[in-house]
Amino acid sequence: MSNKNETSDIRKALKVIGVMAAIFFGIWIIGGLVISILPTVGGSFGFGFPSGSGGRAIRDVEIDVDPQVVYRIDDHRFFTFEQYLDCNNGGFVYYNDTNKKIKVLAGYEGADKRPQNEITTMQLNDVLSLNGKFIYAASDNVIAYPTRDVSYKYGNSTHYIAYKNISTPSKNAKFEVSPSNYNTNTVTDEAIYVQNNPFPKHFKEFIIPKKSDYYKWIPASEVHINRVSIDDQFHCDNTIKPRRLKYISD
Length: 250
Known about the structure:
Elements: H1 2-37, H2 42-45, E1 60-64, E2 68-72, E3 77-86, E4 89-97, E5 102-105, E6 116-117, E7 133-136, E8 142-151, E9 156-165, E10 173-177, E11 183-187, E12 191-196, E13 199-207, E14 216-219, E15 244-248
Parallel strand pairs: 7-11
Antiparallel strand pairs: 1-6, 1-15, 2-3, 3-4, 4-5, 8-9, 9-10, 11-12, 12-13, 13-14
């Protein structure tokens, strides 16, 4: 009798194992099919994860919102923030000179010609990302602004002061700076000066035109700035909200 019972128990166990194997195989097949049809944003950001929009295609976004001045140099030069969701999401910053009738994107040329989408409107604008002070002491022949390069793959960013000379483009360059709250970044026609507030007696001096990434320390007494901007930091009014958002699917 015991042999028959043992044989019966073995057969039951084999049936259970077979059913479980069939279930796991079915789950594996279905999971593969689902993953294969999910769109990913890894090509753009280096992650390869499914879209945060629930598996559907990422939509472009059109934003109808009033521009606002986020930094004023003087009575005719200023920066505006446009096409934003709020102060921390999306949008473009522009340098404006009403005397010279100049309005240019503070960023990569043509970046504002591409539509924003549900991913890009989740990102802080590069110009507004600088935490330290920014003092504009350059003439109207110079367009300068803070910016950054972001590595979404590694989760870090490098901050710069972009410098563009209207009459002498060969002087155009970027100067790496720290985003620290303690730093004051001052732009003149001839140099970029960075002062760390806990050590105010010396400045880092980046000479223009740029010949290397190195700077030299100079005493604060040797820095002579003839003009200063009205603002010393970028600011944004978060009470200004879009009138309308339009989401566009392919």
